[in-house]
Specification:
2 domains, 7 helices, 4-stranded antiparallel β-sheet, single chain, N-terminal domain of MutM-like DNA repair proteins, alpha+beta, Helicase, Ruva Protein, domain 3
């Protein structure tokens, strides 16, 4: 599933094609849209942004298209003259003077009044969006020591969208590795300095993933991994998908654990438990 950084990058790409443009043609074949094309056709797009793993396309008339890619959704942006060769189920299509923007295969999509976005069943449940500029390390530290987070295991906490919105599987492994936090550690087990390092890692690792297209290691580390002939899934991370490979910091083999059926890769030396 795409995580917060991937959805934000997609929003950036779609925004370049749509913001300030009039929708000349709208096709909304999905069930939640039937008979509602008139709300979009002829309207100007005023903003495209992301909130956690959801994308919001806002129109001049006060309506917003909400979408969550989940596992299979995908956005494409093409010149309007480009032949469409995608073999997926079309959910939405917006055509401007130059571009065709399409959403494929997603099922969690809707049109909602912009003024009521905060009431949406998913958006209303979210914790701080880690990628938002207003959410800094202090905000994230306060969240870690809050009553609802203080006694939860790190492995659980880093996937809880009500606590830290936008994080997913690869960010969970990379954040905990960066902060030297064992997956079973809880905020209540750790001293303040470790908690502040954890809060800093939540922000810095997520932000790097956004800026660098999902790469969570420094450029030199990535280049070294490529030179060794490693596949992209391993050279772009410190821990995630590096199970049974040497830790890039201490050479201990990375170990894969599973929590609720979802994989989490960690270094047993760099991330020793504090419980």
């Amino acid at each position: 599933m795409p995580e917060g950084p991937e959805i934000r990058r997609a929003a950036d790409r779609i925004g370049k094609a749509l913001v300030g443009q009039r929708i000349e043609r709208a096709s909304l074949p999905y069930s939640t849209f039937i008979g509602r094309e008139h709300l979009i056709k002829g309207q100007t797009v005023v903003d495209v942004t992301s909130v956690a793993k959801a994308m919001l396309i806002r129109f001049q008339n006060g309506w917003t298209m909400y979408s969550h890619n989940q596992l299979y959704g995908r956005w494409t942006v093409n010149l309007k003259t480009t032949e469409n060769k995608m073999r997926r189920s079309l959910r939405a299509e917006f055509q401007t003077e130059k571009h065709a923007v399409r959403l494929w295969s997603a099922t969690d999509i809707d049109l909602i009044p912009t003024a009521e976005e905060h009431l949406h069943s998913f958006l209303s449940t979210l914790g701080p969006d880690v990628l938002e500029s207003a959410v800094d390390e202090g905000t994230l530290y306060a969240q870690l020591v809050s009553k609802k987070c203080f006694r939860k295991k790190a492995a659980t906490l880093m996937l809880d969208q009500r606590s830290f919105a936008g994080l997913g599987n690869y960010l969970r492994s990379e954040i905990l590795f960066s902060a030297n936090i064992h997956p079973d550690d809880r905020p209540c087990d750790l001293p303040e300095e470790r908690l502040r390092a954890w809060a800093n890692a939540i922000k810095s690792v997520t932000w790097q993933a956004y800026k660098k297209g999902g790469v969570t290691v420094p450029e030199a580390v990535a280049k070294a991994g490529k030179a060794r002939g490693e596949p992209r899934r391993t050279w772009r991370h410190y821990a995630f998908c590096r199970n049974e490979r040497p830790c890039l910091k201490c050479a201990t083999l990375i170990v894969r654990l599973r929590y609720g059926g979802r994989r989490l890769d960690h270094c047993p030396t760099c991330q020793q438990a504090h419980r």
